[in-house]
Write a structure and sequence with these properties.
Dimeric_a/b-barrel, 11 strands, heme, alpha+beta, disordered N terminus, 19% strand
Length: 423
């Protein structure tokens, strides 16, 4: 296998994967467990926006990886009914992902190196571009655990369908999905190229249910990153979990032995929500009202009871009128871990603008992405309270929803996405 800077950059070739078949690759993957201790060493991250992020490790990249600037998220429906074909696809996807995240073409012969009479192994639009910090993260939706592939008894209890929340207006055609892939990169063309090639490889076995482009990350996942702003102009995710918070990641992010089926040990659960913002209405709201809704200063991001962004909110403090300085229905109060028994999320959402709705209003907002150890104990109670009491609800609408179980990382070139589920 080719190596680059000491990091394995290519998995099994497509031909070798198919030659081994599901059973053969499973055996290789099982042997690879002996090397798991190597994969569990501290992960190195890209030092520049053009660099590659290591693909192999105990956890999938793209979760605690410092959030990149661009997103292309896709949900697939599996259209094959053959379990073996699905496993082969995951093997082939893994090999392609290992190559693309290291700045290489999706296939062995690339965009121009194959036989002229055959379709290329790569679509070619990323030729000459660096890796750009590309990460690819896969997850399995509840619908994959029906009776098609013999997985029903392997569905984790934490992968319970999300309940309905007040005020949401979910569109089924952009919700759910059997499998999701999150592509994050610093170059939008690199992210689009990755998803395009996975869809190409999956032709006849999966179909795209929906996809979402995002720009301008709305959360920081490392202390080295400044807190970004959402399209309402406020800093977002100030109290987000960070990759440096190793003990908190253990408690709130990674599925642990005993939490559920062993195939999810070291994985995490992903919730996505497309949240449309009523931009035009928000833009007419007075600054004081905007700040009261969030419970934070719009400039520095400080809580209304503090001076700096990372000051702890004082929810007991009173204003000059004797009322709480941070209102009871302020977003920061209702979303704070203190309101939910300490529950926390690792957020890595993105802004989106999908043109207009035909009435001259921007179709824009937040594509919310949050990883956690158990949505039943984290996202669900937080969102239930927000949906019932948050004054921000006047200006937003949840229009799509997704829930996925993201398995642990790929340990080496003999492993593949979802091996722990299918073997």
């Amino acid at each position: 296998m080719a190596r680059r800077g000491g990091i394995v950059s290519e998995g099994l070739s497509r031909r070798r994967l198919f030659g081994l078949g599901a059973a053969g690759v499973a055996a290789v993957g099982a042997g690879a467990l002996a090397t798991r201790s190597l994969a569990e060493q501290p992960v190195a991250y890209a030092s520049a926006t053009s660099d590659a992020v290591p693909f192999y490790g105990a956890h999938q990249a793209g979760i605690t990886t410092p959030a990149q600037d661009r997103l292309h998220f896709v949900a697939f429906d599996v259209i094959t009914k053959d379990r073996g074909e699905l496993v082969e696809l995951l093997q082939e996807w893994t090999a392609a992902a290992a190559r693309m995240t290291q700045g290489r073409d999706a296939g062995t012969f690339g965009a121009v190196g194959g036989a002229p009479e055959a379709p290329p192994d790569d679509t070619g639009e990323a030729l000459g571009l660096p890796a750009s910090g590309l990460t690819l993260t896969v997850g399995f939706g509840p619908s994959l655990f029906d009776d098609r592939f013999g997985l029903a008894d392997r569905r984790p209890a934490a992968l319970a369908d999300l309940p309905a929340f007040p005020g949401e207006d979910l569109q089924p055609q952009i919700s759910g999905g059997d499998i999701c892939v999150q592509a994050c990169a610093h170059d939008p063309q690199v992210a689009v190229h990755a998803i395009r090639n996975l869809a190409r490889i999956g032709f006849g076995k999966v179909s795209v249910r929906y996809s979402q482009l995002g720009f301008g990350r709305t959360s920081s996942t490392s202390r080295a990153q400044a807190t970004p702003r959402n399209l309402m102009g406020f800093k977002d995710g100030t109290n987000n979990l960070k990759l440096e918070d190793t003990s908190m990641l253990r408690d709130h992010l990674w599925a642990a032995p005993g939490d559920g089926p062993a195939w999810m040990d070291g994985g995490a659960y992903l919730v996505t929500r497309k949240i449309r913002m009523h931009i035009e209405t928000w833009d007419r709201a007075p600054l004081a009202e905007q700040e009261a809704i969030f419970g934070r200063d719009k400039g520095k991001g400080a809580p209304l009871t503090g001076k700096d962004e990372f000051d702890a909110p004082d929810f007991a403090a009173k204003g000059p009128d004797g009322q709480p300085a941070i209102a009871g229905d302020a977003h920061v109060r209702l979303a704070h871990p203190d309101a939910h028994g300490g529950a926390r999320l690792l957020r890595r959402g993105y802004n989106f603008v999908d043109g207009s709705d035909g009435l001259g209003r921007l179709d824009a907002g937040l594509f919310f992405i949050a990883y956690q150890r158990d949505p039943r104990k984290q996202f669900v109670p937080i969102q239930r309270m927000l949906s019932q009491k948050d004054s921000l609800n006047e200006y937003i609408k949840h229009v799509s929803s997704g829930l996925f179980a993201c398995p642990p990382g790929v340990v080496d070139g003999g492993d593949y996405w979802g091996r722990t589920l299918f073997t």
